[in-house]
Amino acid sequence: MPKSKINEHLRWLIVERTLEGLSCRTIARQLNIGKTSVSRTFLQFKKYGCVEDLSPLGPGRSRILTTNDIKYLESLLKEKVDWYLWELQSEMELWLDYQISYCTIWRAMHRLGYTHKQVKNFSLAVLYSILL
Length: 132
Known about the structure:
This protein folds into two domains: 8-48; 67-131. Helices cover 62% and strands 0% of the residues. The protein is built from seven helices and no strands. The chain has helices at residues 8-19, 24-31, 35-48, 67-79, 85-96, 102-111, 119-131. The radius of gyration is 23 Å and the shape is elongated. The relative contact order is 0.08.
């Protein structure tokens, strides 16, 4: 049977009932979920102060680029629309102060929604503005 996610409303119910003094087993029986899920949800609330799911990516290797790095890359992509991948890579290496591969930049761009760098469309727009 596949795991199902517990929605945010249910997580807040777990926190409220735990703070009222009910046991994990009682809450699990009332909400028809596992006792481990109840205790894990409340432990997460005690540790982080929130009930949102903090692991949207699931298990696996941690990301090389942080969210701030991704935001910087996104601003570079918007400001420097005519840059090639190697130029983005060298600028990101200056920002991060360590080396990263082309693949890392490419995967980050793909997660941002870029399917490929569209320099061609930019050059056509510049050419069109010159002709007018």
